[in-house]
Amino acid sequence: MNNIVRKSLLALIASGVFAVSFFSYQYIDGDTPQIQKVNKPKSFPAAATAPKEVEDVLRKAMPWIIKEGPIGGVDKGKRVSDFGRPFKVYVGDLAPVKTLDPSEKGAVTSIISPKYNWVYPLLDSTGKVVSSVVIEKDLEWGDWFVSMSAGRRAFELSLNGDKLTNYLADRGIAKAKETKRFGISLQGMHFIYINAAEGEYLLPLDLMTPENRRELREVLGRPTIELESRKLYPAAEALAKIIEWKINANVSDDGSPLTGPRPSGR
């Protein structure tokens, strides 16, 4: 299996779907269905406003997505009718982990790269989230394009606004000075970084079902990140686990497996 196909397969498993097809919606031609008007919720947790150029890319692709379904599919028996407001998700970069001291203040921000994607919820005719798509930027050409699904769980597990405020308050954190969501896509994990007066924290969000995570481990032939979803960790503790996993699992800086045997120990 070549590297491109292998990475595509891993990413599809990480998005919650075991499949082998991989392509991007970039050009839409011919007769396609029209986007239906649906009863959208006013907002979603962690919703944001994307630049017009990003939304225009999705609008052009939507008729084809409605007709064929998003990459990675939708809930069984459901059809896509429209899209909702997106997340901004920064890309995790594991390159610095070998030199990081997890206990150092701000260390976790070193694995959050400046690059980011937009994740849009895909809605059925009732306004329910049935899947999602990721809008990525081609680093060589600078163009935005529609990539694969991040799955429905990306939105089910979301915490932002009042929900995040209440979640933190229940755990003794009065107010977050800064929050930032980032992902290690080929591991099917998102994280919310929280900087507060009480300290720095990471909140993992596992986008995969237990079955999909088992499949990913089988394909990788090595462990995946083991952090409990929606459990608030001190940033130093969570980062130490990520560093240990990165070294022991012998993965590249985007979370995909390197060739060759796994190292023993750290």
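^ that was protein a. below is b, sequence first then the tokens
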Amino acid sequence: MRSSSQYRRNRLSDPTVWRTHLLHSRRVIAPLLLAAIIAVSALFLHHRHWRHGAAGQHVLAALPAALLIVILPIPVLMLSTVRGFQRIDQEGRDSSSAAATLSLEINRALWLGTLGILATMVVAGLLQWRADRAGAGDDPESPRTWRDWILVACAMVLLPTALLAYIADEVPRTVIGAMDAMTGGAPARVPPSELSALSGKIAALLVTGFIGGMILAIAGVAAAVGAVFAASGVQQPRRPSRLAWVLLAIVLAGAAWNAVRLPIERRWMERVAASASQRHLDLPQSR
């Protein structure tokens, strides 16, 4: 724990690392705020529609917009990380702390996005439960229409979002692992061919995350708009489908797990990065 906190202090005392941290943070704040505004707006609009006669479909209406809180920052992070690595390579000096900072900011952004999803879906679930109780004594449900299928289709954006988040989460783990291997921290001496494979894996993750993130961002915005539009036309009386509650349980469980896991993993990666940086500084002395 002490090495982790000492690493954070040393990391932020380096002007290059501090500048990298600020640039990365400013580039992430804008998409995070935009996604949060979209999520709150989707929830507010559907709640307003519900009060004016639409069926309570808060979970399905808010889910695609909530997922944007994780989706939108990822292509920005991937592009910023690529440019940061290029800048480090052009400077031609040791910037292992800056490389670690670029990677750890991805972990931090995923954690913030997870908290945003968790908060949004908890509110959506409570509003859904309230709407369900309010309509408990209504007449038999109206028949399902094409709008219900649009709601389900829009909710399926959850699957590629989970895959994109996994790809983004792999970047810091791979970068920190490569730093550890390059400085001799791995259990066995890593051959150059394996280090080259690690570099190729990092590049593939960054490119895939950027391209996939851009495509999914467009699809996610379309799904968020489509879900609110479709939910507004589903008229009462209508109970939420079982799928809505199943998806809510899956999203809340996954978000709660990541909200706990990501900070723990970040502290572990900071300790590994601290050890790798120290070994790198000791290399010239050992020679």
